[in-house]
Amino acid sequence: MRAPFVVFALSLALPCLADTPAATESLATPPANAQRFTILSTAGKHGTSARWTTADGTHMGRDSLLLRGMATEVESTATPGRDGMLASVVIRGHTPNGDAGETFAVKDGKASWKSPVDAGSAPYASPAEYVAFGGPMDVTADMFETLLAAPDKTLTLLPGGKARAEKLVTVTVGDGATKKQVTAYAVSGLNNTPVPVWADANNHFFGFVDGLAWLPTGYESALPALEKAQTEALSQHAKAIVPRLEKTPAGPVAFTNVRAFLDGSRFADGQTVVVDKGVITVVGDTASVKVPTNAQVIDGNGKTLVPGLWDSHQHVPDDAAGPLLLSLGITSVRDPGNNNEQTISRAQRRAKGELLGPHVYPSVLIDGKGPNTAQVATVATSQEEAIKLVDKAKADGFGAIKIYGTFNPDWVKATAAEAHKEGLHVHGHLPAGMRPKDAIDDGYDEITHIYFVMMQAMPDDVVKTSNGMGRFEGPGRYARNVDLDKEPMKSLIATMAQRHITSDPTLVIAESLYVPENGDLSPSYAPSSAPCRRPWSAASAKAVSRCQRTSPAPITAPASPSCSNW
Known about the structure:
The protein starts with 20 loop residues before the first helix and ends in a 22-residue tail after the last helix. Strand 14 and strand 15 form a beta hairpin. Helices cover 23% and strands 31% of the residues. It is built from 14 helices and 29 strands. It is α/β, with parallel strands linked by helices.
């Protein structure tokens, strides 16, 4: 799973992998006294997790997860050292990316590690906690508990960086004898945005809530309350940074000596661009443009000035993603499915000036009920319910609906018709059993992901399983032999052109799914990966990119402090 916080990836290195009984049977079976967790989301249960300590003090973990057809079976064995840090870690099992094997050990003053994406060593002269690239929840819980035990809640990490925990909010969960107080902490220094983790009154790991949740067995019903409290607490942090980062110029701003993108078609060097009250008032050669005397001047020598960028497929993961996206020049985002309440809340807070972020054009993700239901989906169990969800999407201010793979194909036509009646755009994955031409005939305006476009030419057995592993494995196996100038793709492409049906191909994601070997860095991420090499390495890059925020962020990908945006 490359740790619970990276599971959200659509990534896999082909060929991958349905469960193999031999591989699963060789992993540890949790004893009766193990602490057990349910892996769940608003869509239901997705797996189980367990933690326990053996008689000799060895820490053990075991996770079993089925996520939209992608299976993960992993275990961990960890031994604490005399300094309280992990002295050794062994991870075994398999993920959608293949072998999850990972090791770490401290010996003779040296720490050494090897994961599916990297290997290295460093002198070990002072206490530092290894942060595993993968493994079950137990290895992350161990790191979190060690972090909270530190006097200043700061922890040096291996392979690098520092983690810091900041208290967010305390709530009460459970009833009667199971009633207890739990506290959420924001952990920074591990990812580009803070990661919230919950602890009990003894600073022991309690759970994790963020798209996917790990909650102790018996506390599953606490999910809505924990998510609500955590979201509200994080929103206050997001509000607090607005005045620190947002600046309104007192007068004009002149960008001088820049390479500017002009006329929507070309770049020109040596330009000066003057902006006043949000409007571009002057563009021209620096030598000929007179800069207003009261203007703030920004020297752009050696830099390029471009319009705000669009990200046409960005599942906005959290409030902290807003400043991160803006720092990359992204001012408009199309979010094709997310937590609806949080999407609405962010839009409202952004409009009030309480949240920094791009303008988001969101879709409501609608799926059916089943083992491969998308975690953040709004679930329909009948055609009538699907139509009502469309009406609610319109009432809530959404501009589109996104249909997902477990949705009943027989409901698509009526659902799309209702969406069009309400003026909503219809796009999405293909419900299992449908080909793109079927979806277009039933009302799709757009096909999401290039591998779903290729479903037109896939064998029937691939199309029938396109809401699980089939959507990756089928195109990975057969698409290279498809001739786009011949049937059935020739007619499909002609139909899409004639009816103005668009494709959201997500080619960067497709490239990172199919091209690199596990551990290689995708060329798409190389220019921006230097400070955070490990989390952006091939498999991880797929995980933290613009796939789907349907499970947590990669807390287990250690990074330098520059990787933290908190």
